[in-house]
Amino acid sequence: MNPNINTESKNIKNGDLVKWRTWITYGIVIDDFNSHTVKIFWLSENEPEQVTWEQRTNVEVISES
Predict the structure, then answer these.
(1) Structural domain range at position 49
(2) What radius of gyration, in Å, describes the C-alpha atoms of the chain?
(3) pTM of the full predicted structure?
(4) Above 50 in pLDDT, residue 4?
(5) CB–CB of 12/58 below 8 Å?
(6) In CATH, what number is assigned to the domain containing residue 52?
(7) Segments of 1-65 assigned E as strands
C-alpha cells in the first residue's frame, strides 16, 4: 500500500475495496461525491456510512476498482 496516507486517501473512488486501518472491517466505496467525504458500505454494517476527510486518512485502499 501507499505509505503516504494523505495521498492515498485523496484517491479513494467508487468501487474501491477499503478497510479501516485500525480495525478488521472491510467496505466498498459507493459514492465519492465530493473531495471532502466518501460514502462507504461497510460489510459488517447495515447502512452506508459517510466518511469525512479527517476519517479518510484512517481508510486503506485494498483493491482499486
Answers:
(1) 5-63
(2) 10
(3) 0.68
(4) no
(5) no
(6) 2.30.30
(7) 17-20, 26-31, 37-42, 49-52, 59-63
